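User: Can you help me understand a structure? I only have the sequence.
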Amino acid sequence: MKKAVIKWLVKWFVIKANLYLWWSKKNQKWFQKEREPLPELEGLGDLMKIVGTSKWTADTWWMLWDAVSHPEYAYWNYKKNGTLGDCDDTAALACHYTQQWYDNTRILSMQWVDEKGKFHGHNVCIFDSDQPDMTTVISNGHNYAYTTNTVEDAMSTFVRGGELLSWFTFKPDLSEIIEWHIL
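Assistant: Let's start by predicting it. Here is the structure, written out as tokens:
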């Protein structure tokens, strides 16, 4: 029953009504006035130095506990507090850079229930790598980038024995959901 309710909430409030992206855009406009211009980076190695030195922090109540930060706000927060924020903030910053260097850059959001019935969600930056038919994933909380064959393979790294409930990808500028799946 719990899984069915979660699937319904994800489907209608997050995906169909697009509230997650809508709220993220409003949050960026209303609450993220502090911003730091993003530095030029040479490539993925420079980006991973930033991601690798950032400490994870949860979104606050005024972000309704989950919103995607503007990349310049995430970088300002990193310079001031040593954190980009949580996984969606890291994904947004990573996508800002990787879309300059790689094709098909997007944010992957996945939701699952672990073996004990606890709900989890995670966002990562994914893009087509330099290798044919390969996808690269950048994630915080784990501070790594890796290459995998498919998006499904990337998700299995995080879900590990749990049950994947849903996943969707969206454009880094939050303009639209590209694809979504309720399982």
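Now, to help you interpret it: Residues 2-182 form one domain. The radius of gyration is 16 Å. Let me know which part you'd like to focus on.
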